Each structure stands twice: as C-alpha cells, then as structure tokens.
C-alpha cells in the first residue's frame, strides 16, 4: 500500500513477465512525505483516478507506452461483476471510477546499509532483472511556481532566466527542464545525471528524459486546451526487457502542479496551508529529516516530535471541491456535482488562502 493508493493484485509480476492488478484511489492525502495524514479529502480519490485515466488514454493516442489497462466501472461492480471483468475505457464508465487497471512489475527491496554505505541499488537491480520499477522520479518543469524546490537549489540564471533573485510569482522557463530524484529512499534527494544513471540500472537515462518530455508535452497541450497552466510534474517508469513504460499515475493534481487564471490547482494548496497554519509540525518534519542524516536508521519519522493537525472542515470541503471541479474542467465532462472551477477556486482563496 502507498500512502494514498492501495494495490489489488490479480496476477503477480514475475522475473519473466509483467503481472496484472489495480490501483484503488483513496481519499487519503500526504504532504511533506509524511504518509497518510489524519483526515480524508472527499472525492479526491475519484478525481485523481479520472484525471489519471484521461491522461493515460491521451498518452496512448500519442503512442507513448504505459502500464494502463483501463478503469473499473463502479456501476458494473455494484451489479455484481468481478472488477477484472469490469475494466473499460474511461468514456464507458457510468460513474466516477476509483479503481484503475494496470500492468504490474517487480519492486524489489532496497536495502539500507547505514549512513556511510547508503542504499544498495546493486541488490535492487539484481533482484529486478529485466522487469522492475525504475527507482527514480523523473521531474519536468515548465515554470518555477512559488513553493518549487528548484528555488532553493538553483539561481534564476542557472535555468536561463535573466534575474538575480526569484520573484514572488511563478516564472516561465525558456525551455522545459528535466531533473531526476530518488524514489524509494526515505528522504527524496535530487541527483546529478551520473547519479541517476547509476541508480536507473538497465534503464537508459537519456531515454527516461525523452519519455518525460513526451509526457510533459501531452499534458501541457491538454492543460492549455482546457484553460489550465501546467507548471511541473513527474513520471515514474517501469523497465520491461529493454522497453520503458510510464507507470504509477500521470497528470493529476497530486503528481503535477496546475494553475487556473493564476490560482494554484494542486496538492500545493494543502502544503501551503500547513506552512501557514501548522508551522510547528512543518519545522519538526524538516528537523527530523536533517537529524536522521548520520543515523543508522533511514526513517526520519521516528525522530519527529510532532504530528500534523487535521484540516478544518471548511478547508477539507474547499479542497475536495477544488479536486472535483478541476477534474470536471480538465476532462470536459461533469463527473461531479460541484460548482465550476472558477467558483471553486474563489472558495479556496477565501477559506484556505494562497
């Protein structure tokens, strides 16, 4: 189980073949790598499933290989159908789905050998062989929004901008940039190209970058067609006997950052609320991530002295409506009975603050 998605395995992956299974999208959410937070955001799971499925089908139309098989039609399951027999294209789902059918690959254990030796990627790849999930996140950026980690790691001139300091508003990049970060380490870290190449195993880093750029183009084109601005996002990939396929989920408000008329539409809204309203916990998280560096353990959460506050009901409702209205607008189909995206974001600005 991940922090916000559950797995259902129909046929397990093996060393010689991919398996079959499903993601179950829950209403749980996670910020700052904490894992599952103390409350749920209603309709979030269905919203992400709808957007992810829509984007996978757009990628298929653009001949981008993925692990997507379809969505599970909730109406058919409610009528007694087995979920594996109720897999349909998104357009045939009669109500908002929460399950996505996918092909599965192997995810070997990544041993931690202590602060000096670090993680044993050789063991990971030895176990993965020719079928494994590449232990990287491939990040693409079209803009540098407020809150982007790039503002801490680079100067404007590093990315081709003619400025000495980062402005207080999102900045468009002259060309999209691609970065690599770790996937399964307890603390995400950005990598040099050489480090990413070593961690990728048999996967080719140049091919990973090219695939990320193709995905970025498809999502950016769809965003522009429906009134959104696509700031940044990421992909994860599986390696299947020499072929790379896009895995996990693509182009949702959790994996990517979007805006609508200058208003952020993504999980970043929740991150910023915690920074303003629960700074004690946010600082405790940062401190724990720093303090674990020289320890023999890699789980920084065991060192965190604080726990997050639940979101107030008004914030939960506003964020829930934002996810649902955004999915309606992006797919141009009324999946959820919620106000239009403009009205939903006005409520977010009033209740949550941006």
Into how many domains do the coordinates divide? 1
- The Cα radius of gyration reads 20 Å
Instruction: Name the overall outline.
Output: globular
Largest β sheet strand count, sense and barrel closure: 8 strands, antiparallel
Number of E strands: 13
If classified by CATH, what would the architecture be?
2-Layer Sandwich
**Terminal Cα separation, in Å?**
31 Å
Helix content: 25-40%
Question: Strand fraction band?
Answer: 15-25%
CATH topology: D-amino Acid Aminotransferase, Chain A, domain 1
Structural class determined from secondary elements: alpha+beta
Name the CATH superfamily assignment.
ATP-grasp fold, B domain
pLDDT averaged over residues: 93
Order of helices and strands: EEHEHEEHEEHEEHHEEEEHHHH
CATH secondary-structure class: Alpha Beta
The tally of helices reads 10
User: Which blocks of ≥5 consecutive residues have pLDDT under 50?
Assistant: none
Tell me briefly what this model is.
The protein has 354 residues and is of the alpha+beta class. The protein has helices spanning 44-61, 74-78, 121-128, 150-153, 193-200, 205-225, 268-277, 279-291, 313-331, 341-351; strands at 5-11, 19-25, 68-72, 87-88, 99-104, 131-133, 136-144, 171-182, 190-191, 228-240, 243-247, 257-260, 263-265.
Written overview of the protein:
With about 350 residues, the protein is α+β, with helices and mostly antiparallel strands. The chain has a single domain, classed as 2-Layer Sandwich (D-amino Acid Aminotransferase, Chain A, domain 1), CATH 3.30.470.20. The chain contains 10 helices and 13 strands. The strands form 2 sheets. Strands 6, 7, 8, 9, 10, 11, 12 and 13 form an 8-stranded antiparallel sheet that branches. Strands 1-2-5-3-4 form a 5-stranded antiparallel sheet. A hairpin with a 7-residue loop joins β1 and β2. The model has no long low-confidence stretch (mean pLDDT about 95).
